[in-house]
Design a protein that fits this description.
It is elongated, with a radius of gyration of 18 Å. By secondary structure, it is mainly α. It has 2 domains: 78 residues; 71 residues, no CATH class.
């Protein structure tokens, strides 16, 4: 396996680890939110859902790295890393928290609708965590649409919580 491909895979591993840490912070922050009084899930539901989505995407990224290493016949402990110049791979981990801040700001300050905002978030995170292409964008758009519409239906029809 070429060194450049190994570096790219290691950057994916670093991004997945950073994403898992961010999800852990979301879960930790959700523990400090007050218990629900009138609504079934309370204010901690959205951070937990976002944290779960981040964990899912990070685990998919780690699985993809493992699959590529296994196909190349290299064990993860045998892969070599070397110093990298400043590039998109070092900036990518900053994109995940930036997307989340923009998402929360869009929902809170701009009062944007939940479904389109969530679709944009899923597509942005998917493009950050995988190789950007038209096919990837279409897949994550369909996944984001299915996810956001199903969450919206569950919240509005079964839990009687309007997400906007």
């Amino acid at each position: 396996m070429p060194i450049s491909q190994q570096k790219a895979l290691m950057h994916d591993v670093y991004l997945a680890i950073a994403s898992l840490c961010l999800a852990g912070l979301l879960f930790y922050g959700a523990m400090g939110l007050p218990a629900p009084r009138f609504e079934p899930m309370g204010s901690a539901a959205l951070p937990r859902i976002l944290g779960g989505l981040i964990v899912l995407l990070a685990l998919l990224l780690l699985f993809n790295v493992w699959r590529k290493l296994r196909a190349a016949g290299v064990s993860p402990s045998e892969s070599e890393t070397s110093p990298d110049t400043l590039g998109s791979a070092k900036i990518r981990p900053l994109g995940v928290p930036a997307c989340l801040v923009a998402y929360v700001g869009t929902l809170d300050f701009l009062q944007a609708p939940f479904v389109p905002s969530t679709i944009v978030l899923v597509v942005a995170l998917g493009m950050l965590l995988s190789k950007p292409s038209l096919r990837t964008a279409i897949i994550f758009t369909l996944f984001g649409a299915a996810l956001s519409i199903s969450i919206n239906l569950i919240f509005t029809h079964f839990l009687h919580v309007d997400l906007g």
